[in-house]
Amino acid sequence: MYSKSIRILIGVVFIVCVVGGAMAFQSTYAKITINQSHTNPPKYPENENGKTYGSAEEATSVEMLSDLIHKGSVDGIAGYVLKKDYLEELGRDVPLYDVDGKTIIGSFHISGAKNMNFYPKNKNGKTYGSATDATSPETVPELISAIGVDRTQGYLLKKDINGEQPKSPEEAIAIQNSRSPGGRDIPLYDVDGETVIGVFHVGEK
What we know:
The protein is an alpha/beta fold and 205 residues long. It has two domains: 2-40 and 121-202, no CATH class; 53-110, no CATH class. It has helices at 2-35, 83-86, 158-162, 169-178; strands at 53-54, 68-74, 77-82, 92-97, 104-110, 128-129, 143-147, 153-157, 184-189, 196-202. The strands form four sheets. A three-stranded mixed β-sheet has the order 1-2-3. A three-stranded mixed β-sheet has the order 6-7-8. The longest helix is centred in the first third of the chain and has 34 residues, at 2-35. 19% of the residues are buried.
């Protein structure tokens, strides 16, 4: 009877640990999202109609995309697609505009189902950018932009945020017991994912 009660208790602790980990995971991403509101967007030039234009590679989030996004050229004239067309989820051909955003000079095929999963890669082949642009946990970049405890802007390794995941009830208990009630500090990296430039705090102080 006691053995059965202990097994039930272990099972409950395991569930609490897993659910708690998921909540902490979401809370951390929410905290990162709030911190990113201080990030300065790229300074795109503006056309005569007051619309910004430039390359999608300069942006790390939807909010930082220019109004007109460069996508090739026609007869030596730079071509741009509208931001709303660029973010299309269904693949189709969209107008390719002159820099004025009004004169159509050709067309461009949007592959669709992109929804900003265009994260750039660093010199080590690691994707980096904002977690808020991911359409699912699987599409979160390997290096997630964040602001450290001393307001230093850098990146977190996704595996550091996720932390160790329990594979058994026994591991769940061990992880639960080892967690500090005040949270934990993880390294804040440069975009290379190797150079530590600060600290980011996960959890409550």
